[in-house]
Structures are given as structure tokens and as C-alpha cells.
Amino acid sequence: MTMKERQEFVSLKRCDQGHVLLASLILIFLLGVAGMTSLYLAGEDGPGISAMKEDKVAQQLADGAADVVMSWFHDPSVTPPSVAGLLVKRQGDSTRGPSFFDVTGRSQFVGTSDHPDIVLDAANHVDNQTLNDPPSDFSTILGGRGRILKLKVYGPLQPGLLSTVEVTATTVDRLPVARMVQLQLGALSIPAIRSAVQVGQTLGAMQPGGESPVMVHWGDQRVLGDLAVQRVEDLVLKSTGAPVTGQSYREMSSAQDRWTEYWIGGTVSVIAPPPGQGTNPPLPENVHQQQYPTPGVRLDQWGYESLKEIALRWGTYYRLDRMGLLHPQGCQDSDRGANPADMLESHAIGDHRGLVFIDTFDGHPPHADNMGTLVLDTDYFEGLLVVQGHIAVRPRAAGKSFPVLSPSPLASSVARVPVQLSDIHVNGVLWAAGTIILERSTHIFGALIAGNTVMATRGGTVVEVWYNADLTQGLFRGLPVVYRAPGTWLAKY
């Protein structure tokens, strides 16, 4: 290599080294800028993430408060006295019973966000105690993480719904965040049950051993046809001085109750009248005969299609086969069927089955040819049992004991009386489109409804019903009186 070539090679090498050095410096500079940017963004993200968390907490608090409002519709005992009267059903009539809606379907809640039907504002001392101070249900939801600023209940924004609930909540952190949640409520259209016992035909027959096997506490007995009893004394005498206990009438010297009235479409017959009084002895004043066709015996109507639809969405649906077995969702071809006792037994107090709808053989409205017989041989059932057929009641054991509340006394200012009931086999509603057949004596807390009649397979077998006064307002355990209408939830900033 000549001297000139050597000099050119050294010059090119130095040039390449300069380029590498320059590239390295640029790279170091860019990495430094990126590092400084990351540190800056990390410092900025801390408050941002914290704000997002606070926003989420505020929404959760408001949402939880809306759930508390829903609970007021289901349990009047937890409702603040200042709003309790506004949440009961104030519409309806003698035919339909109490309702949230008038005959045109318009909700009883008619206010707006600016002029709500119900408003609780934390700026008001009394309202603040309801919203934020223990032992309210709101304080449990808040858990010390925030406060409820305002709660509103007003008319629905969509036709057919019940109301709009609007709750504003705030966190109590260093940087408090307030959020408002709005949602709408719908209501189930299950008619209230206003009588302890309702029978669509006659009850009892004028023959030895054919007397009515039904005895009622705390409510009315309504029979569309005739009623036959063994003795006049078997008709419960209504008296304001009657004891309010869980005693069976068989344990009392005389059958007396504070609430029982008899509304009979036909006549009341006494199989063994008192000596010398003939076949038509005087009856107690709380026994009302010849009520049909006018003024009419008021029987509560539970429509087949509407109740079936509610059961498919909110309850449990079975179809009964000709062997007396139950098929979930009516799939008789895909399963062998289940024993009713296995599906319906409630093993403890509070093991509530909700609405259980047992359909006909063919899944069509009941008539003489498609109704089967469900054998209810559970020790204890808790729920609403609706059978589109007949029910044979055959409890295996003594049932359960638990405390309940009597109906309200005639003086509304007097509280309902706590009573301990024993040997209860059904806690809820027993409803049959056909006949209810008593194979063993049965105790019910709730109501008994038969489209045809109630009959016993042998003398001395009876059913005693203690009416649950909550049914008067359409409060059915295991079913939502109101529910969140889908697609109506909205968070506002």
C-alpha cells in the first residue's frame, strides 16, 4: 500500500469513528429524554389513577344506595317512616286489589327530577341522619368510604315502568369525587292475596263426615258456592277480645278470632244443628251468605299466562307428567322426571323456594283432561306453590316452628303482635287450579286457594290456615316486588 493510500485509509477510519460517536451521543440523549418523560408521566398517572378509583367508588356507593331504596318496597319494616306511605300501593280497586298503577297503566309516581315524589337531601339534618348515620342501611353500604348527598324517586322515563331512582354519592378522601347514578324500576304484576282461604266451588257437603275441613285464623274465608259445617260452633266467632296466639282452634274452648269473616256465594248449612233449632239455626254476624251473583264473592285471580311468564323469568318452572313426576322447563323427553319431594322440600327456615309454577301435562291452560295430581309429601315447604292441577297434601312430620307477626289490629296505631307458630307445613301460598285433597292434617302460614274445592280423605283431617297479612299488599317472599329495568342504568358526572 502506497503512502497516499495509507493516508486515505486512516482518514476514512477516523470518519467512521466520528459517525459512531455521534450516533452514540444522540442515542444517549434520546434515552435520557425518554427516561425523563417516563418519570414525568409516572408522576402524573398517580393522581389520575387515584381519581379513577375514587370515581368508581362513588358510583358503587350510589348504586348500592339505589339497592337500599329497592329493599324498601319489599320490607316495610326497614323503610324510613317519612317515606313509607309513599311506597305502598295506592292505586287499584276492589276487583284488582292494591296496585302501583291505575286502570290506564299509569304509575302512581308522577314527579320529575326537578319536582320528585320523594327527595332526601343531606343538607337537611333529619334527611342526613336517614342517609348517612348508623344504623340505617345506607351506612352499611357506605362503610365509612363516602356519603349520600341526595336521593330522589320520581316518575318513570319510559311508559310501563314504575319509577326512576336517582342517587348522588361522594367519596370522603382527600380529593372527594361525587357521582350520580340513575336507574328505573319495574314492578311485577302479581295480584295481592286478600283472603286466607279462597275456594271456587262448594266447600263441604251435607252428609255425615262431609263437613268443610278448613279452619281459618287472622283472615277471611271466601267460598263461591255453598259451605257445609258440622256444628254452628265450628264457625269461627269474630271478637275484638279474642286472644292473638298460635293456638289451634282444637286447643281453645271456643273458636274465636279478631279478623275472620265468611263470605259465601251460596248458603251455609249445618249438618248437626243444635237441638230444637231446625235445619237453619242462627249464624254468627261475621257469616255472610248469598253473596253470589250480587254483590259477589271477591276471589283473587292469578292469570295462567302472566304467572307462567313470571315463573319462567323469576321463579322455577316444572311440567307435571301423568306419573306425578316433575320435569324442569317441561323437558319430558330429555329427563326421567324428579320426585316432587326432592324438588320442593325446604330443609330449614329461610330455605325459600320462591315462585314454583307446576304446569299441566301439555303446557296449556288447565281443563279437565290435562290436569294431573301433585303429591306434596314434604315435611316443610316455604314458597309460592302454584299447581295447574290438583294437590294431594300429605305432610310426613310435624313441620317447623317460627315467629311471625299477626295482622294489624283495627286501631292502626297499634303494632302487629309477634306470635310463635308451631307445626307449620307450608309457609307461603298453596294454590291449585283444581282440588286440594287433604290426606293428613296440615298447618299453613300464608294462604290457601283452590279453583275447585278442598276435601279430606277421612274424618278429622283438617287444614288450619294462619293468614299472612303481608299478602294483602302483594308482598311475596322470594319474588321481587320491584326490579331494575334492564338498560336503564346511567352514571352521570
Note the gap between the termini: 81 Å
Unreliable segments (pLDDT under 50, ≥5 consecutive)? 44-49
What percentage of the residues does DSSP assign to strands (E)? 25-35%
Could you describe the largest sheet, including whether it forms a barrel?
Answer: 12 strands, mixed
Counted up, domains total 2
Tally of contiguous helical segments: 6
Percent helix, as a range, is: 10-25%
Describe the structure.
- The protein is α/β, with parallel strands linked by helices.
- The chain contains 6 helices and 30 strands.
- The strands form 7 sheets. Strands 7, 8, 9, 13, 15, 16, 17, 18, 20, 24, 26 and 28 form a 12-stranded mixed beta sheet that branches.
- A hairpin with a 5-residue loop joins strand 16 (316-320) and strand 17 (326-328).
- The longest helix has 72 residues, at 3-74.
- The model is unreliable at 44-49 (pLDDT under 50).
List keywords for this structure.
single chain; 493 residues; alpha/beta; 2 domains; twelve-stranded mixed β-sheet; six-stranded antiparallel β-sheet; 30 strands
